[in-house]
Amino acid sequence: MTKKWKFFGYQTNIEWYDVKTKFKQLLRKITYSFLFQELICLIFIAYMKLVYLSSRKILINCDVLPTAAKNKAPLIISFWHNRLMMTPFPTQGLVKKYLGFNFMSLASRHGDGKFVGRIMEKFGMIIIYGSSNDGRKSSRGIDVGSFKRIFSGLKKGYSLGITPDGPRGPNQKINGEVINIARISGAGIVAMSYSCSKFKQINTWDKFKIPLPFSTLCFYFDEKTFYVNKDANEEEIKKIKKEVEERMNFVQEESLRIALKKQ
């Protein structure tokens, strides 16, 4: 459809499709710009802190991280993608308290992943952008360079936070990467989750949960640590994968039960 437009008294013919396309391109350029994402990032962090500070906190087995940091024992903290939002809080202060310790987090390279990574960086984490090979949403997997950074960090005794169903699902199903990282590095896997007594669920592939202020927050770390033998065969890996998945579901359900009970 062609529509007549007037600019400074001059009339011209412009395709409406072209106008919409240019507008979408401009909007995308703005939303993916550094300044815009930095502003949104600060707003998100302010909201996260509001939720955390205004809510009652219940911590279950949260000494797992300080113990690992103190002993420089590498851990892979595994949690589902829909419980990503408040996970930085249990790591606060550990980097300053334990010399030589750091907490790594894996994020995808596309725009949304970089936004999440930027938030995590402001909590003092080392972000490894490795869920894509060329920056496109369609790309999956961790590239060789990112694997090297992960293994180098784990070798130094750092911990790694990972969502094994990210970046795009299927929801609450473990991909093979977390098991392979544990098998090659020798690091232990600990299932973790948090739940909030009041939250808003978004209609996304992972049914993402946004916690609401003045709630009860329950952070739950599993008491069991899984180790994968370097020589583990396919059947053994499959078994461990299933067990880790079950424990991740368990800590998620338990954290929700406790949060609702104590509200």
Could you characterize what this model shows?
The structure is a single chain. This protein has helices spanning 16-31, 34-54, 64-71, 94-97, 111-121, 144-155, 177-185, 234-261, and strands at 2-7, 10-15, 56-60, 75-78, 103-107, 126-129, 159-162, 188-196, 199-201, 209-211, 216-226. With 263 residues, the protein is α/β, with parallel strands linked by helices. The strands form three sheets. The protein has a seven-stranded mixed beta sheet, with helices on both faces. The chain has a two-stranded antiparallel ribbon with strand order 1-2. Strands 9-10 form a two-stranded antiparallel ribbon. Helix 2 (34-54) crosses helix 5 (111-121). The chain is globular and about 60 Å long. It starts with a strand and ends with a helix. Residues 132-139 have low confidence and may be disordered.
Describe the structure using short key phrases:
263 residues; alpha/beta; Glycerol-3-phosphate (1)-acyltransferase; 7-stranded mixed sheet; two-stranded antiparallel sheet; 23% strand
Q: What is the CATH T-level topology?
A: Glycerol-3-phosphate (1)-acyltransferase
CATH architecture level-2 label: 3-Layer(aba) Sandwich
Q: Total strand count, please?
A: 11
Q: Report on the biggest sheet.
A: 7 strands, mixed
In short:
The chain is of the alpha/beta class and 263 residues long.
Could you give the topology of this structure?
Blueprint: E1 2-7, E2 10-15, H1 16-31, H2 34-54, E3 56-60, H3 64-71, E4 75-78, H4 94-97, E5 103-107, H5 111-121, E6 126-129, H6 144-155, E7 159-162, H7 177-185, E8 188-196, E9 199-201, E10 209-211, E11 216-226, H8 234-261
Parallel strand pairs: 3-11, 4-7, 4-8, 5-6, 5-7
Antiparallel strand pairs: 1-2, 8-11, 9-10
